Amino acid sequence: MNARNGFLILLVFVLPMFLMAQDTVEASTAQPSDAVAERGSVEPSTASATGKAAMQATEAGGAAVPPSGQQATPPAEEKKVTKPKKEKKSFFEKFAPILILLVVVGIVVVRLPKLDLGHSPEFRKRRVMNWLPLGLTYAFLYMGRYNVKVSQHAFEKMPDAMGNPMMTNMDFATIFGWGTAVYGASFLLNGPLTDKYGGRRAILVGAGGALVANLLMGLATLSLVTNGPTGWMGENFVTVLTLLYMVNMYFQSFGAVAVVKTNAPWFHVRERGVFGAIFGILISLGIYFAYDIGYMIQDAYSVEWLFLTPAFMLFVFWVLTFLIVQNSPGEAGLTDFDTADASSGDDGPALGAVAVFKLMLKNPVIMTIACIEFCSGFLRQAIMQWYRTFAKNTDGMLGEKGSFVYDNWGMLLCCAGILGGVFAGIISDRVFQSRRGPVAGILYGVMIVLGGILVFTFDTGAVGWIVVFMSMAVIAVHGMLSGTASMDFGGRKNVGVAVGIIDGFVYAGTAVMAITYGAILPEQQLNEAGEIVGPAADPANWIAWPIAMVPFAIIGFLFALKVWNAKPKPKGKPAEA
Fold first, then answer.
1. How many C-beta neighbours within 10 Å does residue 288 have?
2. What does the DSSP 8-state code read for residue 310?
């Protein structure tokens, strides 16, 4: 099976999601624009009313019934501000972003270079059938990971019992920060477990646990929507969501380890640059599912479906993974082969977890890559998590909300990640003889330049496209190092621990990002019309957002230079940085 056939199979799996997304767009455009967008959203003026009755009154478009003893505010005196009703988009306008995405994926996958390593057609066919359901499971894990960011845009319009947003920027930073801290720390346990029990079991455990966690987050959100901000769930919602998101992120941490561990025996080191491109495509599809399809779901349905939808998709792909995926060619009835990575020639018994950790921690290349990826974790999420929040908060002055980048954020991140990943994979294998350091150095150089430009242009119309190109660079670095270099230098026997260390550093960087931005970015305030006002509405107060990225881009570049010439060596000949 060649790459073209693999792409056709990919469409069979993914196209139904796109068709469902079109239905959600049509449903959302049929709703009045001056009505509350999400079921469960209420105006701040109704926050003193209790529970479901107040929300139902608001949904109906009328004034909420005030508590006894208080006089209702006449409709003429309300300070509600409504935006002009948007024109309904044509089918082509709604389908264009998805069409662009499919074209990009098709061109990229069909044009991937082929290396003659003696693989039989039967082997190639079985390899596609192995990484495809596994990879799409990972993509839907992404959807179930970043849906919490999409949900913030619904929760921030729901007032709590005090009239404040149900989820502020600080609340989101707290939820995401604790979740990413758990994600990073979990690799200390889940990396060795994956090496011991295999990638197949690890992805089944991870997807199953994330499925349950997203289901519970959906049910918690449904309780909030049903019972209102004055019920127990309303009073404790941020705490409950934080705890459930921490559980979700523990199981999510199996994903990357399992994908890399499972694929390591299937790819020779000379073709792992191409696998890095595949890994980048899968990450990018997950980002598209999380953001663009997530916002479509949010616009058309109640907010709890942001969590219930990935739970359902994870169930579907859990079943497919269970039925199809195997840990190695040998387990699939084929012949195993020497992948020429750091495990080449190592036919002895597997080392214990502690011994492997010591081995990896003493490896200068692994630790340098981990430091680069710490910077990647900060930069990637600084862009992905905060661009739309910045655009929405400052829309009154910049008008960025509703721009092409804003409306198609997930699609553009997906295309950028695919193009960056394929560029990185091809030049790594074909130009730099399967060295990963030069690619990371070049891409970090791009981020330094664009980060510097962003500092001076973040409050202009250029901000959206600048962060898209920065995302292209950082997603490509992440796929190349976490998805490929971890295989090379960890070896197929110890790759679980290697990925655990590297991805642990990624999410340590993400946790630092969440804590940093939670402390330095302006807080949101709502006026009586439910609009964002105060410091967060002024672009000048967001200058810390781009400035904080630049030092991490510089540090990542300097570390990348240290591994410019690094290549994996067989057992007994550790790679030199």
1. 32
2. H
**Domains in the chain: boundaries:** 133-342+349-562
- Percent of the chain at pLDDT above 70? 74
Half-sphere exposure of 267 (CA within 13 A, CB side): 30
Alpha helices, H only, 254-304:
254-263, 272-288, 294-300
Q: What distance in Å separates the CA atoms of residue 390 and residue 404, rounded to the nearest whole number? A: 15
pLDDT tens per residue, range 395-424: 888 888 878 888 888 888 888 888 888 788
Distance (Å, whole) CA 491 – CA 526: 53
Q: What angle do CA 331, 333, 339 make, to 5 degrees?
A: 65
Give yes or no for residue 24 having a pLDDT over 90. Answer: no
pLDDT digits (tens, 9 = 90+) for 285-299: 888 888 888 888 888
Mean pLDDT across the stretch 16-26?
A: 46
- Residues 54-81, buried b or exposed e (16+ Cβ, 10 A)? bbebbeeeebbeeeeeeeeeeeeeeeee
State the pLDDT confidence band at 212, using cuts at 50, 70 and 90.
very high
Tokens of 168: 């502020």
Which position has the higher pLDDT, 32 or 515?
Answer: 515
Cα–Cα distances in Å, from 375 out to 6, 138, 328, 378, 567? 33, 22, 32, 5, 22
User: In the block, which residue shows the tokens 């792909």?
Assistant: 317
Architecture of domain 133-342+349-562: Up-down Bundle (1.20)
Closest CA to 544 of 561, 563, 525, 520: 520
Q: Compute the half-sphere exposure of residue 242: CA atoms within 13 Å on the CB side of its CA.
A: 14
Nearest Cα to Cα of residue 409 among 301, 510, 289: 289
Number of H helices, E strands in the chain: 21, 2
CB 37 within 8 A of CB 31: yes
Could you give the CA distance from residue 458 to residue 463 in angstroms, rounded to a whole number? 5
In whole angstroms, what is the distance from residue 396 CA to residue 165 CA? 18
Q: The whole model's pTM is what?
A: 0.69
pLDDT tens digit string along 432-488? 877 888 989 999 999 999 999 999 998 888 999 999 999 999 988 887 887 777 777
Encoded tokens for 162: 């005090």
CA distances from 258 to 173, 251, 261, 356, 500 (A): 27, 11, 5, 17, 10
